[in-house]
Structures are given as structure tokens and as C-alpha cells.
């Protein structure tokens, strides 16, 4: 394609580019030049490219349309990242840009023949045609998946850049940096309030920014808005967030947004959560696309797109233009562009009257024909527009005009996404032709053009009024000022009459309602004819509004077209539902900088000194191994033959006290907690409402209404809130304290554990005085208080010692020094994992999943069925699932000694997937691979052989035999001795 680098208009005061600073990009393997301030799309446009992509379904050529990213027309791959919207993405030096959704090149797409097969793709054809015959569905599915979607993801792609996050509290949040938003921010800040102002463009100014029309017959609009911007920058209470896209609006005025890098910021994208007391929505309007034949051709643009190309980027949008508009902004833009050198062949204005007289006079002075009551009905040209047919609204007369640019708009439509998310009901207004907000939630206000205002002064004053109302919602007394501004606004022009035009008077099949999904009026009519004649149903059946641009292009037209088909008034059809995110956001932005924030146990440094290899476990950094021998054979042998010690400080530790403490335990634990006695541990578990296991631990009664209990590491942070949630409706008196960080914990275990402990305490710890599942409190080395729990998680004689965190390092060193004569060894989580697996003990989250109940794990004996009055959480579900068929059951399995253990998570299969491996290791104690797995209940039979699939075995299945558990010391004598 021959490219003509367009000469920039460099003397315009409204420019947002620096023509003196060149930036290069690589497009289709060649270096092109843009300038500082360009977007990717405007840089390509400056280099003569008019076709930037192909449509998703018909592969029709698409070009620059809105400059606001309202469609997928300009989605491109940038530096390996697909689906980047080139319309608003700022150009950076060295970007590599590639077109998407093309076979060949955008100008010559080998898939363009699909455009002639549109007759074979009626509305919902993929729902109705590819499920029969069923045996061919896998073939259909394979090819549908290959052709669906836009952009290709390289599985090896790693996103580059810096991503941050920020959490902000403010009094007033203003969404939109146009004249109304700026005025609202100034009004609120002058009342002493903190204001955060969010604007999607890299600069403030909104619809005034690029217009040279005069303000109150004096200064041009762009100068007026710059005065407002300077005033905002001077206000210390106003915090500005340019190039920031709102993504969500939630309860209590929580606004989420993502800010993109403009120039020298130290981030590429920044995720923002902003909490306010009041919110002003001043998001303005976008243009409603004009629906006519071939209305998606390249070089068909919206008014503001053509206008901004010239005034913001110094690019003439065309040489010979035809306008088809319905409001004065179109006339204003035509006059401006004519003055800059674009020859305006004609303006078709769908209005029969109502044009501003000064604009009409200016058109006459320039010799630009104005056709009242006319509209564009068809565009001609294969790859970009060359000719347009204009028709009367009745379709009785036609005119043909040559052009290389068609500026088309059916009117304005408000950007109400933030209001939709806040729960505001939108109601059709016959005067403006807008869906306007009704019944605002407390503290939410709107202003500016989205209310239908067009007069510049009215827009500003409406913003000031909204800012004062926001201040009043924050508790500031502004009654008198508010009344004065209300009176001022009543004296100014109100909402402008809007367009009622839905589509041009033409009946053809290529009238596009949604550019992203290639949805035409024909598709809408077909859906309605089949009974999908409610907007939400039409949207889903045709996919209109479900593409990357969401409701940008079809959002307003869709309900109008549906209403027209049903011969109903537009007020009978509301707009479709809007959901967050309003703007597509990288997952990297949500993740932020990914700080490696973790907690350390009190003996972290001691472990590090002894050669620990640490791994991240939830919120903690824990010692996984104590050497580079990742089989942990020496650690395991030390525990089985002598004595070992492990840091288990991460276990949750809680004190629960008060008159209703026992009631609380009975509510959340499945067992009968009244059996938790003084000096005796009670083991039990917690289930959620579905009966699925979420936690286990031990409970001891330290006094009449005073309990001490533990939780798993993963639930330590959630236990308090879990208990409060499930007792929120009870008038119970109790206190709960999380002692997890206040106490560390050491597990001293092995056949010689008692010998070590006897040397550092004067307490009687004989088996008779301190039996298995017992609890005692004594001192170590006559100084360090310890709460001792006699447990057996690893299957050996064990003492779990809970010690104040500040004393943990001292206790740790004393135990190691005392145990040295007995061959004591520190062991890590991996050794503990193997030891407890040999004993058949489960780890929640390892041997369980979100659907796993106590019955599935063979632990149903923990559930006390007679504890009905306590309304135990999950009890109903446990009773319903106790004998339920088809569930996954926990089994033990073993393999031949010469086999290697499968990886955790490997699949258990027969003719289908029937389960998965939870944990599997080679047991040096038993000299063979063993493991635990969740499999379908029919396979959970002792002696049954199971097959295990692993992706690195060249398709060969590993074989294992279901075995009874525990694998080691089934009678439990070693931990009870």
C-alpha cells in the first residue's frame, strides 16, 4: 500500500502533540514515525493507514471511528500483548504493532469472502446449527474454538512493566474531567473538602477542549476550559487522576479505576481503589452511531473523532467530506474543518428545524449546502468510503455524492455506566432522546451533558450545583449558596431537544448495530421474530454489546431498534444491564507490584542459621527442607528412630471465654464440645454450610468458661470472623482473642522426645501423668511458660509446646542443646508431610477440596448427630450427604518398590477421569511409594488396582493398589506410649 505521510497542522492552539519530538513504531515490519502525544491509531493514520483491522465474524475492513475506544475497530497486538485499543493507547518509542484478526494483511484479508456468506449466519446460528448430529459436535467445537475470539495469546508471553496499586480515601469523588466535572471539583474543594477527580483522557477539558466556538460570545471554549483547569491545579484539596479509566462502582461509594502511564510516571498501569462520602458523575456523552447500509466502512467517523483528529492531533481526517448529523455539533465541526482545508460537499441534517441561526449563516457564507430532513442511507466503496447516498427521512428522494470521508452521527447518548453500576434506574426521556437517571442513591449526583445540557454556561453551573450537593451530603452547610446556584441554573437554557432518529430509511442486510460482533438490524429483527424481543434476551441471542467495546456502539441503539420492531415507544424498553469492569484491565494491574509480603515465625533466623530451605506457605515463609536433600530421608529417620523438632508457630491459637463460650464451640464444631475437659484435648472439625470440611483443631477447657483451641495455619486469619458471622444473630456473651502471633509453637516428637523434655522441666510428664491427648501447663528451664499438648500428627510420641513468641528463640535453643546428646534433628514441612501421610492423617486443602465432606475422608465419626439444639454449621448438609452416591472418597494406595511416586495432582483414570492424587511420596520407612488420593467411591475398595496418568510418562499409566490406612503403626501404639 502506498502511504502518504500527512502533513501536520502545527499552528493550532488546541493541539495535544509535540510535532518537534518524533517517536517511532514498528508496524508490519517497517518503522513508521509518529510524534509525542500521538496514540497508536493517530500515528498510523498520519502514515496513511485507513484500514486498521478486520471484523470478528465477517472480516469486513474497519478503521478509525470514535477515538474513544468504543468499538473493537482498532484492537491491535502491541509488543506481544493482544487486544490493545490503539485509539486511546499513547504511542511510545519502539512499539511493535501488529494487526489482529486478519489472514494476510488488513488491506488484503484472505478471509474477506466470509462477508458474502452472511446469509448463512442468521441470529443465533451457532446455538441452532452445530448441535446436530451430536456425533459431529466435537468437530464443530474444535473449529468454532479456533475461529472464535480475537487476538492470539502466546503461552510463553510474559508481560513487562511496572504495576502498582493505590488505596485512597476522599470526601468527594468526581468522575469526568470536562467542564462540569471541573466545576463540581472546584465547588466542593472551596468548601474545604478533599476531592479526587478521575478523567479517562490524558488531559482535562472534555467537550470544550478541542472546540473553538465562543463561550458567552467572548473567549473560545478551549480557552474557557483551560481557565478552569488552571483553577483546579491551584486548589490544594483537589487530586487529579488523568488517563484514568473507571472500572467499577460499588457500595458505600467505592470507586475502582486503572491509571495508565503517560510520560515519566514510574508505573505502566496503576490500580486504584477510591472510597468517598459523595460522588459526582460528569462523564458527558458519546455519539450514537447512525444506522445505514455499510455504516461500518473505514473513513466513516463520528463527529468528535473527525473534529479531534484535526484539533488535537493536527491531522485532517479527509479531503472531501459529507456530513450526516442531527445536532449543532455536526454543523460546528463542519465549519471548523472547512476552515482548516477539508472540502465539505454537503451536510445532511435529519432535523427539519432547530439549527442555530449563526451556524446556518456561517454555512451559507462558506457555500456549504445544508439539506434539512436528509440522512445518509448507503455508503459505497469496498475498502473505504468513496461515495455516499443521501435520502430524505421518508426515503422518497435520493442524492449521490463523492467523498473520502463521511462524518455520521445519529445524536448524542449519555455515558451512564457509573450511574448504572450504582443502581440508578434509567428512564427514557422524550425531550432529549436519552435514557436519563431517576431515583439516585444517597450521595450520588450527576451534571453536565449527560443530563442533556448543551449550553456551555448551563454545563458549568450544573457541575457547580452537583459539587455543592456533594458537599452537603458530606455534612457541610451550603444551603444559601445552593439555592443561589439552583436559581442561576433555572435561568439558563435547559436540556436540548434530542434526535428521535433510529435508522436511515433503507431495508438492506448490512446495517450494523454492533461493530464488534457484526450484529446487524437483520439479526435484531430475526431474534425478535423468534421471541427474543426483550433487550436483555436480544443482546444475548445476537451477542450485540457483548464484544470488547461492551455497550459503547450498540448501547443506546439496541433498545431503540428492538422498540421499533415491536412497534413500541422507546420508554417501554430500557437499556441493557451494565456490569463492571467498565474498562478492560490487565490482570497485572489488579495484582499490583506483587510485593512478596510474608510473615516470619519467631525462630526464622534460628532455622536459617541451621540451613533451612524456605518456601512460601500462605502468609508465612516456612522451612520446607533442612538440607538440599529434598527426599528428607535423614530428617524422617531422625523422627522415627530418635527425636526431631519442627517449628509449627503458624498454627492458629485462640482463647474463647465467657458465659456462652461453650455455645459458640457447639455452633461451629461438628463434635460435642461439652466433652472438652480440663487437662484433656478434644479433636474436632469445622464444616461450612454445605457440610464441606474447612478446618480442624483441638480444644481444651482451661477453666469453667475459658477455652483454648487451635486451628490450621490456613484458617488462622479467618477463624474469628467465621465465629462472629455464625453467632451474629445470637445474644451471646463471649470474648475471642487471636493469639496466633502472640504464641509460637514447637513440636518435639520421636521415641526419645520424653527423654529430652524431662531434662528441661520439673513437671511430671510420664505417660500416666501426661497421656496422649492430654494438656498441661508448666515451665521450661524453670523460666519459660509452656502450654503443652500431647498429640501425634506424625505418628510418634509428640509434645506440642506453645510458648510466648518473645521466648521462642530461647526455648528453641534450649531444646536443641539439650537434645543434642539424643541425636535431635530439626525437620521441615516436607518431612512432616511424609510422616503424617504414612500415618494417614489429612491436611485440609491437600486431601480435601471445596466439595469434600467428613464422610468422604472417613472422618464422619467426628460428627455428633445428637447435637441438634446447637444448630451446628453444616449439620444438615452432613446428614444429607452421608449416604450420597457418586462422591469422591479418600483412599490410601501403595506401589511396587521399584516404581516412583506420582506427582501430587496427577489424575486417576479408567475410561475417564475418576479422581486425583492428593499426596504421594516414596516412604523410606516402608521402602515403597505410598500416597493418598480422592477417587470415585466405586474404586475405594482395598486391593483394587488404580491407574494414574502423568503428563511426562509418554502415555504410559502408572499402576497402584488401594491399601488400608494408616500405613504406619495402625494401632497407634507409638504415639500413645
Describe, in short, the structure shown.
The chain has seven domains: 114 residues, Roll (Ubiquitin-like (UB roll)), CATH 3.10.20; 202 residues, 3-Layer(bba) Sandwich (FAD/NAD(P)-binding domain), CATH 3.50.50; 118 residues, FAD/NAD(P)-binding domain, CATH 3.50.50; 61 residues; 142 residues, Probable tRNA modification gtpase trme, domain 1 (Gyrase A, domain 2, 2-Layer Sandwich); 87 residues, Alpha-Beta Plaits (2-Layer Sandwich); 93 residues, Aminomethyltransferase beta-barrel domains (Elongation Factor Tu (Ef-tu), domain 3), CATH 2.40.30.110. It is 22% helix and 27% strand. Helix 8 links the parallel strand 19 and strand 20.
Key descriptive features of the protein:
977 residues, alpha+beta, Ubiquitin-like (UB roll), FAD/NAD(P)-binding domain, 6-stranded mixed sheet, 24 helices
Amino acid at each position: 500500500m502506498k502511504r502518504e505521510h500527512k502533513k501536520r497542522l502545527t499552528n493550532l492552539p488546541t493541539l495535544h502533540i509535540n510535532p518537534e519530538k518524533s517517536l517511532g513504531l514498528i508496524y508490519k515490519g517497517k518503522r513508521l514515525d509518529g510524534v509525542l502525544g500521538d496514540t497508536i491509531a493517530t500515528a498510523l493514520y498520519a502514515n496513511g493507514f485507513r484500514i486498521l483491522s478486520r471484523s470478528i465474524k465477517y472480516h469486513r475492513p474497519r478503521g478509525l471511528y470514535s477515538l474513544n475506544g468504543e468499538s473493537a475497530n482498532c484492537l491491535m497486538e502491541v509488543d506481544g500483548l493482544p487486544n490493545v485499543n490503539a485509539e486511546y493507547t499513547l504511542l511510545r518509542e519502539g512499539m511493535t504493532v501488529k494487526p489482529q484478526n486478519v489472514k494476510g494483511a488488513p488491506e488484503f484479508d484472505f478471509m474477506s469472502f466470509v462477508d458474502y456468506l452472511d446469509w448463512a449466519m442468521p441470529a443465533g446460528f451457532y446455538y441452532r446449527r452445530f448441535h446436530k448430529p451430536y456425533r459431529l459436535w466435537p468437530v464443530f467445537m474444535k473449529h468454532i474454538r479456533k475461529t472464535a475470539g480475537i487476538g492470539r495469546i502466546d503461552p510463553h508471553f510474559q508481560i513487562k512493566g511496572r504495576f502498582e496499586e493505590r488505596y485512597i480515601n476522599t470526601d468527594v469523588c468526581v468522575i469526568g474531567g470536562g467542564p462540569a466535572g471541573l466545576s463540581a471539583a472546584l465547588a466542593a474543594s472551596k468548601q474545604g473538602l478533599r476531592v479526587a477527580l478521575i478523567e479517562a483522557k490524558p488531559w482535562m477539558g472534555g467537550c470544550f477542549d478541542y472546540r473553538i466556538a465562543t463561550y458567552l460570545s467572548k473567549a473560545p471554549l478551549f480557552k474557557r476550559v483551560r481557565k478552569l483547569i488552571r483553577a483546579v491545579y491551584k486548589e490544594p484539596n483537589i487530586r487529579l487522576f488523568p488517563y484514568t479509566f473507571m472500572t467499577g462502582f460499588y457500595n458505600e461509594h467505592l470507586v475502582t479505576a486503572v491509571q495508565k502511564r503517560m510520560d515519566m510516571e514510574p508505573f505502566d498501569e496503576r490500580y486504584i481503589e477510591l472510597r468517598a462520602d459523595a460522588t459526582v458523575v460528569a462523564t458527558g456523552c458519546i455519539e450514537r452511531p447512525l444506522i445505514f447500509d455499510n455504516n461500518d466502512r473505514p473513513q466513516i467517523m463520528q463527529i468528535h473523532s473527525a473534529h479531534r483528529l484535526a484539533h488535537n492531533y493536527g491531522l485532517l481526517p479527509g479531503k472531501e467530506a459529507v456530513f450526516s448529523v442531527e445536532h449543532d455539533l455536526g454543523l460546528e465541526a463542519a465549519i471548523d474543518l472547512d476552515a482548516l482545508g477539508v472540502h465539505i460537499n454537503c451536510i445532511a441534517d435529519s432535523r427539519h428545524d432547530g439549527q442555530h441561526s449563526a451556524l446556518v449563516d456561517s454555512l451559507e457564507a462558506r457555500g456549504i449546502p445544508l439539506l434539512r430532513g436528509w440522512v445518509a442511507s448507503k455508503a459505497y466503496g469496498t475498502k473505504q468510503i468513496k461515495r455516499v447516498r443521501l435520502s430524505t427521512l421518508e426515503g422518497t428522494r435520493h442524492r449521490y455524492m463523492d467523498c473520502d470521508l463521511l462524518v455520521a452521527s445519529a445524536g448524542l447518548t449519555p455515558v451512564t455506566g457509573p450511574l448504572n453500576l450504582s443502581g440508578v434506574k434509567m428512564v427514557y426521556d422524550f425531550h432529549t432522546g436519552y435514557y436519563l437517571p431517576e431515583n439516585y442513591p444517597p450521595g450520588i449526583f450527576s451534571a453536565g451533558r449527560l443530563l442533556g445540557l448543551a449550553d456551555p454556561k448551563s454545563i458549568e453551573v450544573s457541575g457547580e450545583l452537583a459539587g455543592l450537593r456533594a458537599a452537603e451530603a458530606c455534612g457541610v452547610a451550603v444551603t444559601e449558596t445552593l439555592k443561589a446556584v439552583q436559581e442561576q441554573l433555572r435561568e439558563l437554557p435547559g436540556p436540548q431537544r434530542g434526535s428521535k432518529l433510529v435508522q436511515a430509511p433503507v431495508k438492506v442486510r448490512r446495517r450494523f448495530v454492533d461493530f464488534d460482533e457484526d450484529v446487524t438490524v437483520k439479526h435484531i429483527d430475526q431474534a425478535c421474530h423468534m421471541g427474543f424481543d426483550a433487550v436483555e434476551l436480544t443482546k444475548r441471542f445476537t451477542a450485540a454489546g457483548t464484544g470488547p467495546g461492551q455497550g459503547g456502539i450498540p448501547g443506546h441503539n439496541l433498545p431503540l431498534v428492538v422498540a421499533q420492531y415491536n412497534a413500541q415507544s422507546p420508554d417501554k424498553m430500557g437499556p441493557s444491564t451494565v456490569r463492571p469492569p467498565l474498562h478492560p484491565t490487565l490482570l497485572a494491574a489488579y495484582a499490583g507490584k506483587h510485593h512478596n509480603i510474608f510473615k516470619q515465625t519467631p525462630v526464622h533466623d534460628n532455622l536459617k542459621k541451621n540451613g533451612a530451605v524456605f518456601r512460601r506457605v500462605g502468609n508465612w515463609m516456612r522451612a520446607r527442607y533442612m538440607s538440599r536433600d529434598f527426599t528428607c530421608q535423614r530428617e524422617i529417620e531422625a523422627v522415627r528412630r530418635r527425636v526431631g523438632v519442627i517449628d509449627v508457630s503458624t498454627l492458629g491459637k485462640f482463647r474463647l471465654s465467657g458465659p456462652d463460650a461453650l455455645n459458640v464451640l457447639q455452633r461451629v464444631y461438628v463434635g460435642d464440645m461439652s466433652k472438652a475437659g480440663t487437662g484433656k484435648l478434644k479433636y474436632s472439625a469445622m464444616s461450612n454450610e454445605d457440610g464441606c470440611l474447612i478446618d480442624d483443631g483441638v480444644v481444651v477447657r482451661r477453666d469453667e468458661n475459658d477455652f483454648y483451641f487451635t486451628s490450621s495455619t490456613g484458617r488462622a486469619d479467618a477463624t474469628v470472623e467465621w465465629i462472629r458471622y455464625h453467632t451474629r444473630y445470637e445474644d451471646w456473651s463471649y470474648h475471642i482473642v487471636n493469639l496466633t502471633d502472640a504464641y509460637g509453637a514447637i513440636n518435639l516428637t520421636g521415641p526419645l522426645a520424653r527423654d529430652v523434655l524431662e531434662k528441661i522441666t520439673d513437671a511430671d510428664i510420664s505417660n500416666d501423668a501426661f497421656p496422649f491427648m492430654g494438656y498441661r501447663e508448666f515451665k521450661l528451664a524453670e523460666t519459660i511458660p509452656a502450654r503443652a499438648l500431647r498429640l501425634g500428627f506424625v505418628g510418634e510420641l509428640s509434645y506440642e509446646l506453645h510458648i510466648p513468641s518473645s521466648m521462642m528463640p530461647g526455648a528453641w535453643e534450649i531444646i536443641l542443646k539439650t537434645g543434642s546428646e539424643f541425636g535431635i534433628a530439626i525437620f521441615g514441612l516436607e518431612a512432616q508431610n511424609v510422616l503424617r501421610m504414612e500415618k494417614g492423617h489429612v491436611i485440609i486443602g491437600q486431601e480435601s477440596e471445596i466439595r469434600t465432606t467428613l464422610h468422604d475422608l472417613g472422618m464422619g465419626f467426628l460428627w455428633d448427630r445428637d447435637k441438634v439444639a446447637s444448630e451446628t454449621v453444616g449439620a444438615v448438609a452432613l446428614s444429607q450427604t452421608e449416604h450420597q452416591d457418586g462422591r469422591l472418597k479418600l483412599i490410601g494406595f501403595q506401589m511396587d518398590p521399584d516404581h516412583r511416586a506420582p506427582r501430587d495432582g496427577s489424575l486417576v483414570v479408567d475410561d475417564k477421569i475418576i479422581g486425583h492424587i492428593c499426596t504421594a511420596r516414596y516412604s523410606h520407612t516402608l521402602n515403597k511409594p505410598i500416597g493418598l488420593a480422592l477417587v470415585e467411591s466405586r474404586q475405594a475398595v482395598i486391593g483394587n488396582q488404580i491407574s494414574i496418568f502423568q503428563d511426562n510418562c509418554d502415555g504410559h499409566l502408572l499402576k497402584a493398589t488401594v491399601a488400608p490406612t494408616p500405613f504406619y503403626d495402625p494401632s497407634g501404639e507409638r504415639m500413645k506410649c
